[in-house]
Amino acid sequence: MTEHVRIENNGGILTLTLARPDKKNALTDAMYGKLADTIESAEFDPSARVILIRGEGDMFTAGNDVGEFAAVAAGKSEGSRNVIRFIQSLARCTRPLVAAVQGRAVGVGTTMLLHCDLVVLADNAQLSTPFVSLALVPEAASSLLMPARIGHARAYEMFALGEAVPAQAALQWGLANRVVPLDKLDAEALALAQRLARQPAGALTATKRLMRNGEVLVAQMQAEGEQFAQRLRTAEAREAFTAFAERRAPDFTKVA
């Protein structure tokens, strides 16, 4: 499954491409592992001055592979540990992180953007965090970062109702730096990454460390992770994933 993450390092820019377009770039345990390995290794690679994250096809990512969630909810799997490594690697990353986002960015597809330093959205981008709709809770320290970024009211609505935020609204709320036409997305993100790569790396690293405390974010992730793991094994979660598989609306009113 690691072929579903494509890695390129050119001109100081380490590009991570989610390359599973036939499955809407849904992230599997193996993909999380490859992403985590690469981001962790970049900390010790002077040739990786900037990290650029993008998705292949018409969607950035549909988020975590729902099949893996469903297996945990049904008691058939212990679940992924690599997702924890991935989100913690984002929190601790000292390299500038740039994201290029087209189409839908669901769940972790949106929360990972809170760890990126520059976010470029295509004009068709839609950001959503439907954790509660799946009987889960936010992750990736988004329960801390999202309210701080856009305010409690907007953050709560994104989490509790799970409705998608279109690109222009995301820009106005402060979730992105740019919105560009879809056919300009990769060029704009690459241009920004190249500009960062020409900046003094030490000054960029020091600036990022002053702006973000990675260990505080990791502590929040651990608290979220405990709740997430508990919620994933509830009757509500089983109903959510059964309904998803059966392509019907879940009925949480009948769940004790």
From TrEMBL:
Protein's cellular compartments: Peroxisome
GO molecular function terms noted in the UniProt entry: delta(3)-delta(2)-enoyl-CoA isomerase activity
Keywords, comma-separated and alphabetical: Isomerase, Peroxisome
Keyword Translocase: no
Any Pfam family: ECH_1
Gene3D superfamilies in the record: 2-enoyl-CoA Hydratase, Chain A, domain 1
Entry keyword annotation includes Zinc: no
Top-level taxonomic group: Bacteria
Position of the signal peptide: none
Name of this protein: Enoyl-CoA hydratase
Annotated source species: Bradyrhizobium nitroreducens
